[in-house]
Amino acid sequence: MQGLSCYTANLHAYLAGEWDADAMLGQSVRLAVRVDLPDGQLAFSHHDPPLDRLPDGTRLCYAGADAVQQALPGVIGELATYGRVLVVVDASRLPWSVIRGRAPTPHWLLIDGRRSGRHGGQWHVVDRFTALMPAGEQLPHEGWLSDWELRDAMSLPPRWEPEQEQRNALAFGAPVPVPATRTLWLRRRPDDLGRCASLAGRWLCGDDQVLPFLMNYLLDHSSGITRHLDDLWAAVGHRGFAYRRRLAGGITGHERGALRAALTKWENLPRMLRIAAESAQRGRPRPVLARAAIEVLSRAEEGIR
Question: Contact, 44 vs 234, CB < 8 A?
């Protein structure tokens, strides 16, 4: 799914099984940043209303087990009840991933089928994530994984990097509990809370607050470009998804021109961020490039506020 992160691309595929996933995702896109974490770390929230609450009165939540074999009955139960289930995998263990064999990276994967074979079970998986990454172009994938391949992909590392833990907890937009287990999947439960979890801590919300903050942050924390590159790419992809949907809705005149201009600036941002990140990794940080790109973007956003 063009522009969406590895979480939302496959969440979109899950939601599309019952509802208008384009509308649900497009209407939820926003950008908020938590700014009171230690060591200059940030947390990003990309959705409001959050996407764990579903139209049928259920809620998606994480479930965990200490081993994949213990998790499979829960996965099979979701598959039997809803015809599909999202599981958390390590993208570096997926056969089609361009980062295979590299650092562990959390990723959501959709399972929508299971069959028995002569040499064990197989699982039909769908991965709609597509992106141009430093390691190469990640293309969508659909096919079968053996029992062993699925168990390997679902075997998570003992711990994630702090920014990856934040992404897992905030994947829906509002924080949700993530079990500290080596295997995770998503299950549906009755939404008996009746409310969304609040964003704890100090958050900046909206482009008029977030974009100026990011301009200064990237100057003061050059390493933050690399640490939060996936978060910034996700923000770009989500905004592009929402704006293309609005443009397809038939808006005209000044609003259409301003929206197209802003979309172009969002789409140009990943290239500048990548250059800045690669420079920082070589020990020659050039945060001014990223700052300038966000400054141009901020001016374009002012035209549609």
Answer: yes
